[in-house]
């Protein structure tokens, strides 16, 4: 096709809002279509936006454009020979990794502009460059050499041609190879295709190839295989050289072949220093004999729905092929045959790198009238075969090789779950002195040596039954195993349909003697098949099968696993370190023993390994920083180092990223109590400032450490006693505690893998039993074969936690469904709305039979009001418990024995936090807390169920008083402070204080009360957290957040709920901290001296200031306030000092009736009773034990009457946390002084208080704040105070006033002048 070039000289601007979830920038090249045809893509290129270099402004972009322009290589589909619409061409044009053709290069410069120009309207646009293409710096170029030695190709597809060759009359199309890099091409001539072997054995070289100096900008090499007929590419590969070529024009069932190629690429000067010899002359061909010893196979996929396979092995090498005999109806066949490729034809080079691969395929024999098809196989380089020095009688040790589908690429074979079976095989390459030499011993005698030595053992099969068998009617089981003579020995069980065909119990034990190999690698598989009656019992059909490995069951095996010691199947990865810690807790180990030291050493080793992994990941990240296609690099020539910088690297150093990764990897999460999110919770989660939480960690200690009685739960825990030990240790399902299962469970599967690669394999049930091997015969079975009896499974479902949201609002409407066999129960009518932590408190008595149906399934669904016909509610997750495994487990039966409850209501079984799973994911979708008991039917009727229910709900009123702000620093001259408070459980119900206008010193005062109502018990502790935020009021724009903190109230809400009385957290804490009755002191011991200064300044000064406008304290007032009321200072009251909370305020205490700054607060009128509630009012009752003393501290009296804040025992200073949005750093700025009181709602109704400073203004009395803006008669002072930050506004107002005054004077003066003129004056 024609080569074209174009000059654009354009800038493409794409707006991006950060942060963004999109990470990929796409650069694509298109061919403009004609009038009636659409545009055609030529190729795509992708860049990670995080790796694009950044610049601040557009002018920096212009400077950078003159410094660096990079080359982007574009790849796409071939112009001819590839289906363009809906075929592989669309994939090639979109993804360069799949592309087959180099389409050209684009000169590009890409940057992220942090501050785009102001004329950008948030839409993509383009601009023409002011700088011309010719003036731009071009990438530095260098001269390269491409050299390649093509040896041969094997497994090349054979194509026929219509016209025979004139020379030899062959009708097979010849093949050739083409190697391209950019516009440079190397081509090898046509060569004959002899049964898939094509030999070229020649070297090609291209010099003076001009390519970019930066190696990352050099295009990839592309190797094509072409046929003689139409000269069209059949297959291709990209450098780095792949072992298998990607298909282009071949059918899916055909294999594109492989070639042996030695490739070199580098600078011309390097190529001249590293000359290659003439490999065609130096590599002589010698005679060899290849012997392949095929022992057995396991896990081969079935070829039809009957689960059968008639396999044989075919080996192809150097144009020759041999095959084994056919083993009928076996997916785990054993051959013990040797194959030989000789026949005076095998001539190979001594260097195995110049020899073809060994191709091994497993085929299915479909008889005479059908075509055999390959099932699976693998490729092996000849260098991996055992190379002998001469004729030998020994056989190399075999090895298990994984087999994959014949058309799988390297990427597909690396994916987990793509394995199609395994072959036990060994390869032996024996040199010969001449072509006609016969290698001794012969192949027949070698085959006789392949069988290993055997030992007589006892095979014990306990066939317990099948569970959840698809379409079960009257099934029976068959066990097949290959004996020492190579024949299959079968054992059958009896038919059973009890209790039903889906869960049939066989309860049969098969004990037989059998010979098994002494070398465990040759251990055969035990094939377990379940057959069921169909067509009314006239025929049997396979319902499912499974192959069981016996290698770990041999007593002499190094990996021997004793019976009943296999772990339960769990879909969640278990933390071994956590399990070891749980084991130590269960053993009650208090001191550190030898095992503890070993565990600590293991933990240290694991931490060191994690650090190494982090470092290796960092190195990988550094190595992969270049976003350009790596292209070349797997060559024999060493490239010269270039001075050009890697393109599109971020400017920021990677050190911060690496440190962040290490810190994130090594971050230790604090262990929370299992009940931390429930009604029985104890501890609250704490967050350090490094975690970026705006809630600061203040100096308040844990109340439990101070001896304050904090309840551990919202209600009585009688039913929880002796049942919570497992989840208290962080346990999940009880399988982690029991460790082992009394039975072995094997999934039964049915289906096949079709010729096109599609699989119909599916799970059809489960076989439950025990398979063991012993050298002596066991008389008694490992599990007693009991008769079927009636039992009752008593299921207690407590709650679910951490559920995955299923609704658009981020919540779910969960309910549970329990099923066991034909029994099912659901709480759909009792669904819980909009929660991820529902509480169920359900008890079920489920009749069951043992042995029998035992799969208890507990599912959590999301209730949907509307869903499509044929669909149901959304499954959030489910968990399955095998009750038979529990009943026959000795350790489970012993649980609860010896406890006090065992004598009254039977042994209590522990609560387990089971993971909820879904088939589509291996991640937990939440947890369900429950426990299960299994009782005989008679005992279940006499034993009462455990009573456990949800604690009754109660409303608690949270009263918050915002007193003052101190020490807030800002760059602005003044700010307008107000405070918002709310509970996390109800973030929309926020309360606001009034506004402290024009504060200049970072201090403010409100004396404002907020009230919040919360319903307890809480399902999550965080819902009771009190959030306090400081804001700056802006009249003409949105207000600005200045800082916040969070105070957890969950523990105090529990205390208020249990004790049924009001609680003041800070007062209790201060009492315990100081050891006095009335908490921390708030006035210094030198209050008398400060009082004199206060009185003198109050009488003689009248200086404006934030805290001294009314008292005239001037600039000293903030300092005096901070010294007087800061509870963190070491100050105190005298013995006769009075309690501020006990001051009885006069009746006219509503100091500011109309000063409610928040409209929301004004909605709730103070309609309660007057503030005199009598001596028996719960919130204002006086202590009867201590006679109230008259206050003697005149400083507090003066401060309170003046509206200045005083120290309160029930108040505390909190640091305000501030997050810097630009750099993400967390800091503190200023302190807020608040009080918190929790009051049961019934008490709150009997003793109400008003919002803000409204009536009833009691408990305590809130005086009007001092330090506010004073409104006087001087208009200039008012303007300066209101618009101190806007001097221009003041000037404009003054100018307007002057103009109005002047115009008024002119109008009045003009009237008088006219009057005087008329009078002649």
Classify the secondary structure makeup into a structural class: alpha+beta
What is the count of β-strands? 51
Strand content: 25-35%
**Mind summarizing the main beta sheet?**
6 strands, mixed
Distance between the termini: 108 Å
Shape: flat
Estimate the helix proportion, in percent: 10-25%
Tally of helical segments: 24
- Oligomer status: single chain
- Poorly predicted ranges (pLDDT <50, ≥5 residues)? 241-253, 570-600, 610-697, 1076-1192
Rounded radius of gyration (Å): 43 Å
pLDDT averaged over residues: 76
Concise overview:
The chain has 1321 residues and is α+β, with helices and mostly antiparallel strands. It has 24 helices and 51 strands. Strands 17, 20, 21, 24, 25 and 26 form a six-stranded mixed sheet that branches. The protein has a five-stranded antiparallel sheet with strand order 11-10-13-14-15, with no helix packed on it. Strands 44, 45, 46, 48 and 49 form a five-stranded antiparallel sheet that branches.
Task: Explain what the structure shows.
With 1321 residues, the chain is an alpha+beta fold. The chain is built from 24 helices and 51 strands. Strands 17, 20, 21, 24, 25 and 26 form a 6-stranded mixed β-sheet that branches. It has a 5-stranded antiparallel β-sheet with strand order 11-10-13-14-15, with no helix packed on it. Strands 44, 45, 46, 48 and 49 form a 5-stranded antiparallel β-sheet that branches. A hairpin with a 5-residue loop joins strand 28 and strand 29 (488-492). The chain is flat, with a radius of gyration of 43 Å.
């Amino acid at each position: 096709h024609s080569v074209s070039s174009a000059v654009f000289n354009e800038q493409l601007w794409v707006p991006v809002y950060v942060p963004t979830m999109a990470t990929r920038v796409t650069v694509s090249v298109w061919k403009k279509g004609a009038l009636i045809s659409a545009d055609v893509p030529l190729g795509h290129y992708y860049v990670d936006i995080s790796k694009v270099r950044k610049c601040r402004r557009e002018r920096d972009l212009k400077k950078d454009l003159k410094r660096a322009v990079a080359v982007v290589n574009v790849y796409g589909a071939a112009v001819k020979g590839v289906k363009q619409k809906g075929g592989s061409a669309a994939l090639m044009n979109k993804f360069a990794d799949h592309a087959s053709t180099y389409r050209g290069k684009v000169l590009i410069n890409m940057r992220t502009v942090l501050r785009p120009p102001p004329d950008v309207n948030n839409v993509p646009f383009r601009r023409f460059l002011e700088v011309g293409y010719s003036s731009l710096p071009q990438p530095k170029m260098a001269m390269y050499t491409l050299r390649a030695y093509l040896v041969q190709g094997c497994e090349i597809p054979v194509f026929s041609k219509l016209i025979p060759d004139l020379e030899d009359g062959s009708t097979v199309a010849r093949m050739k190879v083409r190697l391209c890099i950019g516009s440079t091409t190397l081509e090898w001539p046509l060569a004959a295709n002899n049964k898939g072997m094509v030999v070229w054995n020649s070297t090609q070289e291209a010099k003076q190839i001009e390519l970019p100096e930066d190696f990352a900008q050099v295009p990839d090499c592309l190797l094509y295989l072409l046929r003689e007929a139409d000269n069209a590419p059949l297959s291709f590969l990209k450098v780095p050289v792949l072992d298998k070529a990607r298909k282009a024009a071949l059918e899916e069932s055909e294999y594109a072949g492989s070639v042996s190629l030695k490739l070199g690429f580098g600078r011309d000067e390097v190529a001249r220093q590293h000359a290659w010899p003439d490999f065609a002359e130096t590599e002589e061909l010698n005679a060899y004999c290849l012997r392949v010893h095929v022992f057995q196979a396991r896990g081969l996929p079935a070829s039809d729905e009957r689960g059968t396979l008639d396999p044989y092995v075919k080996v192809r090498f150097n144009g020759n092929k041999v095959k084994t005999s056919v083993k009928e109806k076996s997916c785990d066949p054993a051959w013990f045959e040797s194959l030989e490729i000789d026949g005076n034809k095998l001539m190979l080079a001594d260097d195995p790198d110049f020899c073809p691969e060994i191709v091994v395929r497993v085929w299915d024999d479909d008889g005479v009238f059908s075509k055999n098809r390959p099932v699976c196989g693998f490729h092996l380089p000849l260098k991996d075969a055992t190379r002998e020095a001469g004729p030998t009688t020994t056989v190399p040790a075999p090895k298990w090789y994984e087999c994959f589908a014949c058309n799988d690429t390297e990427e597909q074979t690396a994916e987990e779950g793509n394995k199609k079976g395994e072959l036990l095989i060994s390869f032996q390459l024996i040199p010969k002195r001449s072509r006609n030499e016969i290698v001794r011993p012969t192949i027949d005698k070698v085959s006789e040596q392949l069988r290993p030595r055997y030992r007589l053992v006892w095979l014990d099969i306990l066939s317990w039954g099948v569970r959840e068998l698809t379409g079960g009617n009257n099934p029976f089981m068959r066990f097949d195993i290959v004996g020492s003579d190579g024949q299959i020995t079968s054992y059958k069980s009896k038919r059973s349909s009890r209790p039903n065909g889906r869960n049939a119990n066989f309860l049969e034990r098969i004990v037989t003697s059998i010979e098994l190999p002494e070398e465990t690698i040759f251990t055969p598989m035990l094939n377990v098949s379940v057959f069921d009656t169909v067509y009314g019992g006239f025929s049997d059909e396979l319902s499912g099968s499974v192959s069981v490995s016996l290698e770990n069951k041999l007593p002499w095996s190094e990996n021997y696993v004793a019976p009943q010691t296999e772990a339960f199947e769990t879909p969640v990865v278990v933390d071994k370190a956590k399990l070891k810690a749980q084991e130590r807790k269960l053993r009650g180990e208090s001191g550190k023993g030898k095992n503890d030291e070993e565990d600590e050493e293991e933990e240290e080793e694991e931490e060191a390994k994690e650090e190494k992994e982090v470092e290796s990941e960092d190195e990988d990240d550094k190595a992969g920083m270049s976003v350009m296609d790596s292209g070349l690099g797997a060559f024999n020539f060493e490239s010269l180092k270039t001075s050009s910088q890697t393109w599109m690297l971020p400017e920021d150093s990677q050190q911060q990223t690496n440190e962040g990764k290490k810190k994130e990897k090594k971050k230790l999460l604090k262990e929370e109590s299992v009940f931390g999110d429930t009604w029985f919770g104890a501890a609250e989660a704490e967050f350090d400032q490094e975690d970026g939480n705006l809630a600061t960690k203040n100096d308040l200690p844990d109340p439990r450490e101070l001896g304050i009685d904090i309840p551990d739960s919202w209600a009585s825990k009688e039913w929880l006693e002796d049942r919570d030990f497992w989840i208290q240790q962080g346990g999940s399902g009880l399988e982690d505690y029991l460790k082992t299962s009394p039975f072995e469970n094997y999934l039964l599967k049915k289906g096949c893998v079709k010729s096109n690669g599609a699989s119909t394999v599916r799970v059809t049930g489960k076989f439950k039993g025990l398979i063991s091997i012993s050298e002596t015969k066991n008389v008694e079975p490992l599990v007693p074969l009991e008769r079927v009896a009636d039992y009752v499974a008593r299921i207690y479902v407590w709650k679910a936690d951490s559920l995955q949201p299923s609704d658009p609002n981020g919540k779910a409407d969960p309910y549970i469904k329990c099923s066991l066999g034909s029994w099912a129960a659901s709480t759909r009518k009792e669904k819980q709305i909009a929660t991820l932590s529902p509480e169920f408190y359900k008890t079920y008595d489920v009749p069951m039979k043992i042995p029998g149906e035992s799969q208890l399934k507990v599912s959590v669904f999301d209730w949907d009001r509307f869903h499509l016909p044929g669909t149901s509610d959304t499954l959030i997750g489910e968990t399955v418990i095998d009750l038979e495994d529990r009943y026959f487990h000795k350790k489970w039966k012993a649980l609860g024995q010896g406890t006090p409850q065992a004598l009254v209501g039977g042994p209590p079984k522990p609560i387990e936090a089971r993971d909820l799973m879904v088939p589509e994911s291996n991640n937990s979708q939440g947890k369900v807390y429950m426990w299960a008991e299994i009782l005989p039917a008679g005992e279940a009727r006499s034993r009462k169920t455990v009573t456990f229910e949800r604690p009754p709900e109660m409303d608690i009123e949270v009263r918050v008083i915002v007193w003052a702000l101190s020490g807030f620093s800002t760059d602005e001259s003044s700010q307008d402070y107000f405070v918002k408070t709310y509970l996390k459980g109800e973030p929309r119900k926020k309360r606001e204080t009034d506004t402290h206008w024009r504060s200049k010193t970072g201090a403010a005062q409100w004396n404002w009360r907020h009230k919040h109502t919360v319903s307890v018990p809480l399902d999550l502790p965080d819902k009771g957290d009190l959030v306090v935020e400081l804001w700056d009021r802006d009249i003409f724009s949105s207000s600005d957040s200045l800082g916040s903190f969070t105070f957890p109230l969950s523990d105090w809400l529990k205390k208020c709920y249990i004790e049924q009385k009001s609680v003041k957290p800070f007062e209790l804490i201060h009492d315990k901290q100081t050891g006095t009755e009335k908490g921390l002191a708030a006035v210094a011991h030198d209050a008398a001296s400060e009082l004199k200064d206060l009185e003198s300044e109050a009488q003689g000064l009248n200086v404006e200031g934030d805290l001294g406008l009314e008292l005239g304290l001037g600039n000293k007032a903030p300092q005096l306030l901070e010294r007087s009321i800061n509870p963190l200072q070491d100050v105190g009251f005298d013995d006769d000092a009075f309690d501020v909370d006990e001051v009885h305020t006069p009746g006219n205490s509503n100091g500011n009736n109309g000063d409610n700054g928040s409209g929301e607060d004004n909605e709730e009128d103070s309609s309660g009773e007057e503030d005199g509630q009598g001596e028996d009012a719960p919130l204002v009752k006086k202590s009867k034990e201590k006679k109230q003393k008259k206050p003697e501290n005149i400083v507090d009296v003066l401060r309170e009457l003046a509206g200045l804040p005083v120290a309160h025992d029930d108040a505390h200073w909190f640091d305000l946390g501030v997050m810097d949005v630009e750099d993400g750093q967390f800091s503190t700025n200023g302190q807020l002084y608040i009080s918190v009181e929790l009051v049961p709602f019934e008490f709150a109704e009997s003793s109400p208080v008003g919002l803000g400073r409204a009536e009833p203004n009691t408990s305590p009395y809130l005086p009007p704040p001092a330090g506010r803006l004073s409104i006087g008669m001087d208009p200039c002072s008012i303007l300066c105070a209101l618009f101190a930050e806007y001097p221009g506004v003041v000037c404009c107002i003054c100018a307007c006033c002057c103009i109005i005054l002047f115009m008024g004077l002119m109008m009045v003066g003009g009237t008088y002048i006219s009057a005087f003129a008329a009078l002649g004056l």
